Amino acid sequence: MFQPELETMDPAARKRLQTDRLSGLVDRLKSLNVPYWREKMSSVGFVTSIDDIAELPFTVKSELRDTYPYGMLTMPIEECARIHASSGTSGKPTVVAYSKDDLRVFADVNARSITCAGARPDDIFHIAYGYGLFTGGLGLHGGAEMVGVTVVPASGGNSAFQAGLLADLGARGFCCTPSFAVLLGERAIELGLMDQIKAEYAILGAEPWSEAMRIKIEEMWGVDALDIYGLSEIIGPGVMMESVQAKGAPFIYDDHFYPEIIEPGGDDPVPRGDYGELVITTLTKEAQPMIRYRTGDVTRFVDEPSACGRTFQRLDRISGRVDDMLIIRGVNVFPSAIEAVVLDDDALTGQYAIIVDRREAMANLEVRCELADAADLPQRDDIRDSLERELNATLRIRVDVVVGEPHSLPRQEVGKAKRVFTRTGDDDPIG
Ligand code: DLL
Questions:
Q1: Ligand 1 centroid to residue 335 C-alpha, Å
Q2: N or C, where is the chain less crowded by C-beta within 10 Å?
Q3: Distance 181 CA to ligand 1 centre (A)
Q4: Does one domain contain both 260 and 407?
Q5: How confident is the model over 239-259, as a mean pLDDT?
Q6: Position 165 pLDDT exceeds 70
């Protein structure tokens, strides 16, 4: 463990720490002479227990846009140490600022996460998340330096070159998006490099992925594939992480990021263990704290102690975003549920695209995938029929499946995988 005392803290002691941190944060925010915080905190009283958090107002993403770029800062921008940003869908990016201490916490939680995956200081660690305004590259990088590994700051893209680096430089661990891990694996196999690659763990996140995808990546690479979650508004990567001993239910580092789960679209908590929207309060962020930030990500609490001894609260891996949930003829469908079925079929590569066909009043769902081996082309119709049956049974709606030839679907070299496309006209949305 990177910070064993903090990571195995007795839950009652951690609750006292959370209360102290929240009450200190609320006092500080109430005393600020910043218009955004004056208004946000105007009706907030003093906090005497972490459970008082339910009385605080929520924060939503549009507030970051409305106060662009620096309206939510609690300190002058000149005193901040770094800025990151995520590209917005409507023009302006979402800007987030870090103080020096925020960067130390950012590095700490990523060092915890890399250690959770089994990293040791003598490892070579390959970072294939984008460096730059995106938090992935620099976030994992700061953590990796704290652990003391030798960092290969490869950044995103250029999969063939990166496969060569992994083979030549001897990385024991690497990190990237799960979709890039598949692309990189395909390249390594095509180039005959897989046998030379000695990686033992992969730290994957920044986009939703399924348990079936984990199995595929673990088999492809011979690694432990572990889920890391985070978002720029809260800090970046390192908000949640799985440990090797406790796959399936990542920890949320709740000494820094306090979680609640509420009804999607509503304001009340769901019963403990039910799925809902993850809401996070930053207990230690200085430059740009977030009070009850509605992440839009769907998960649930998993109240099982972990074999690794860490005592943070655990959550289910993120099933998707509230706004990515497709509603097809009244049935709620998460893209990750489709992914799980597609990946279960060994005849397919695991690449897929979901097309929501809205040309008629009732939306139709089409799933495109591709054969792993051209030798299976004569069986293509049987493979399609069996996948349609599986998808119908799992999702309880009719799905049209198209099985393409090997490599017929586009691969994405950089950024988060786009899996869902909408069809409104006659053009093919995937092009
Ligand atoms: O994606 C930070 C990050 C970098 C996380 C590297 C993990 C690894 P944003 O660009 O702000 O930050 O996007 C955050 O991505 O609200 C989720 O919807 C999604 N997301 C991130 N990690 C996961 C994950 C980074 N492990 C948004 N599983 C979040 C599912 C994830 N979704």
A1: 16
A2: C
A3: 15
A4: no
A5: 96
A6: yes
